[in-house]
Design brief:
mainly alpha, two-stranded antiparallel sheet, 81% helix, elongated
């Protein structure tokens, strides 16, 4: 696929989408994990936000791979592309956990008779959501910084 529009590479557009969507999804994951009111307010919106972030990552990486083949290869660019390969698992984790947490809260928590299970999920779920949110934010910042360095110092 030709990842340009009117002769302009689309990678910067998708990178900006990803650099906004991933932290918003991460903060959403942290909010629904830690704040019950946010859980009720966001409801199905939380997984939708996670989906937008998840979809943005392959768009950014695919357009970036296309651009990489049209640019001079440097060590800084190589570092950026290597880091970028690690973003998709974090986005999958945030999205999947948001879907599972929403489904648990919406359909299961009031119907499960085993209070031990409810308590365990109530501890493990938020921990995983917060960990995935923090991990994805760290990853997107590291990738973005490496990309900026490769553009401005490469």
């Amino acid at each position: 696929m030709n990842w340009q529009f009117g002769g302009v590479p689309l990678h910067p557009l998708f990178v900006h989408l990803t650099s906004v969507a991933v932290p918003v999804a991460a903060l959403t994951a942290i909010a629904v994990a830690a704040w019950p009111a946010a859980r009720r307010w966001l409801a199905v919106g939380a997984p939708i936000i996670g989906l937008v972030a998840l979809v943005s990552v392959p768009l950014a990486t695919s357009s970036g791979e296309w651009l990489e083949h049209h640019e001079k290869e440097t060590a800084l660019l190589e570092k950026h592309t290597e880091l970028a390969d690690g973003m998709l698992p974090w986005s999958i984790a945030v999205f999947a956990l948001l879907v599972l947490w929403w489904g648990w809260q919406r359909f299961a928590v009031d119907r499960v008779d085993n209070r031990g299970l409810v308590r365990a999920v109530g501890i493990v779920g938020p921990f995983l959501l917060i960990a995935a949110g923090i991990g994805s934010m760290i990853e997107v910042v590291a990738i973005g910084h490496a990309g900026a360095v490769s553009v401005w110092k490469g």
